[in-house]
Amino acid sequence: MNRNATIVAPQPEAVEAGAEVLERGGNAIDAALACAFVQGVVDPQMCGIGGFGSMQVYMPDRGIHEMLEFYALAPSAATPDMWLDKLLGQSRDGFGFILENNISEIGYLACCTPASLKGYERALKDYGTWDWGDLIAPAIKYAEEGFKIRPHMHWYWTKDQTGDGQVNTLDKLRYSQTGQRVYFHSDGRLREVGEILSNPDLGRTLRRIAESGSSDIFYHGEIAEQIAADFAANGGLIALEDLAQYEITKAAPVWGSYRGRRIASSPPPGSGFPMIELLQILENFDLAAMKHGSTDYVRTLFEAMKRMTIDKDTHMGDPAYVDVPVEKLLSKEHAAELAAQIKRGERASVERLDMSQRDTTHISVVDKQGNAVALTHSLGSPSGAITDGLGFMYNGLMSRFDPRPGKAASIAPRKRRASSAAPTIVFEGDNPSIVIGAPGGSYIAPTVAQGIINMIDFDMNIHAAVSAPRLVGVSNSIDICNRIRRSVAEELRGQGYEVLRSPQAYAFAALHGIRITDGISSGAADPQRDGMAISVD
Fold first, then answer.
1. What's the angle, vertex CA 461, arms to CA 336 and CA 427, rounded to 5?
2. Can you tell me whether residue 471 is helix, strand or coil?
3. For residue 265, which of 33, 421, 418, 419 has the smallest C-alpha distance?
4. What order of strands is seen across the sheet that includes strand 52-59?
5. Which are the catalytic amino acids?
6. Cis check: omega of the bond before 269, within 30 degrees of 0
7. What is the C-alpha to C-alpha distance for residues 25 and 23, in angstroms, rounded to an integer?
8. Are 119 and 250 in contact (CB under 8 A)?
9. pLDDT digits (tens, 9 = 90+) for 293-307
């Protein structure tokens, strides 16, 4: 079969780096890793070596289909009740918890053990073909020589997040001396769209990692010592032992089906299973007979999303610590029961505390050999903390743990923080037909599901599918983008629903996907961000 290769991601610089790997004979994994390293430089609040992620890898010629999991762990010194007396509330989308002085969101206490670098290394060792240093080289160049600040990056830096009780990214950028130097002019003005942003410290760190030949320098060597000393000096919890003891995990994908297509996505603590559950609920409705974006369509998706959210909020956690009943939640019987409630007109209620940031990125790749990769990696929420001289920002993942003991997502030492990522591959017969994922926190599962629905139920091509009007329903409000008709919103309000209209035409999680037909792949980037797709013949 004649095949081409395609890569898509939200950052043009990173896509180009991955495409060049494909053009030079690298496989899908090599391309994804080169892309990922560059993303950590050119979108440094979305991902980087201070973060975490998961990668679905499909390599038919080698008989490999598995999830490589590099989730961040709570520090060993963390305890279930450490912040119980600090709890104020929860973000409306359920993505994080709000504590006094935002101690779980900004600064050194916000950080879980970084995992991405070890994940990248393991992916290269187990699946890739390229040299470690060659994969990192494009990222080093962008860190040292700089790149132009893109519109979405700047919008994210400057948006006001205080209405939900959270810390503005601008304050996180100012938190460290490195951040003040990299992101601001000497007079304190934030750098603007189109200006060149360089980060020499990050370039030196990446060069040290490349020249060392492995991630050992970061987890056992000089860089580990720098990290541990900095956390100790600033009251953080990550110690040398947390870095030295960190290990990658692998898991089989979770499987479901939608209208005869088999779907593989991320198991707990990833959010592939809620995404599949949502599709299997909606399989009980003739969505194609509903006009896309109609009142019936929006109401049906909303009620299904709420039920998915209730199951996720109730059960999601690290399966090493809590029992996540995946088999029950992904049974067709469970989906049919929930669909029957919707058909009877019953309205679900999502319970939240009285009170989000969604800081992630994604890569989809297929190569000429038929290999496919869906990689979602993240900082979860940037902490603002940067060790002087290292250049990269640490994740702020502790805010995602539930400060209340006894919950599925409660804090525990070395517990994996639950992830909203859902890197997904859809199969027709034995062959991948869709490789898709998105950044976007709690909005990822509803958004990935809608992308799949757009292609399967409405026969959209990949470009139309990732850019079609969307809604999300992860609270008791229907959130709609600005391209869903106002008449639809008014009808729903007349039925007693609260409908919140985003000012954005392209809103919520940002889909980045590839569709494959007869071996020929084409990709598309969500217009809400700055990305692109490149195909290689």
1. 50
2. strand
3. 421
4. 249-251, 64-70, 52-59, 372-380, 359-366, 5-9, 532-536
5. 360
6. yes
7. 6
8. no
9. 999 999 999 999 999
- State the pairing for strand pair 477-480/424-428: unpaired
Amino acid (one-letter) located at 30: D
As given in the structure block, the two tokens for residue 418 are 């639950």
Looking at the whole model, is its pTM more than 0.90? yes
- For residue 475, what are its two tokens? 């609270």
- Rounded to an integer, what distance in angstroms lies between the CA atom of residue 370 and that of residue 110? 40
Distance (Å, rounded) from C-alpha 92 to C-alpha 78?
A: 25
Report the SS3 class of residue 163: helix
Chain centroid offset of residue 131 CA: 26
Give the tokens for residue 469. Answer: 């009007």
Q: With pLDDT > 70 as the criterion, what percentage of the chain qualifies?
A: 97
- Please state, rounded to an integer, the average pLDDT across all residues of the chain: 94
Kindly indicate the confidence band of residue 351, based on its pLDDT and cuts at 50, 70 and 90: confident
Single-letter residue type at 301: L
DSSP states of 246-298 as a string? Answer: ---EEEPPEEEEETTEEEEEPPTTSSHHHHHHHHHHHTTS-GGGSPTT-HHHH
- Alpha-carbon distances, residue 130 vs 34, 77, 198, 376 (angstroms): 10, 38, 26, 21
How close are the terminal C-alpha atoms of the chain, in Å? Answer: 13
Average pLDDT over residues 357-380: 91
Q: Which residue has the tokens 């609270």?
A: 475
Tens of pLDDT, residue by residue over 407-433, are 888 899 999 877 889 999 999 999 999
Strand, coil or helix: 161: coil
CA distance 149 to 531: 13
Map tokens 């997040």 to a residue: 161
Q: What CA–CA distance (Å, rounded) separates 374 from 436?
A: 7
535 vs 275: CA distance, rounded Å? 28
Q: How many CB atoms lie within 10 A of CB 200?
A: 14
d(CA 87, CA 402): 9
Rg over alpha carbons for the chain, rounded to the nearest Å, is 22
pLDDT exceeds cutoff 60 at 358: no
The answer to whether residue 321 scores a pLDDT higher than 90 is: no
Q: Three-class SS of residue 110?
A: helix
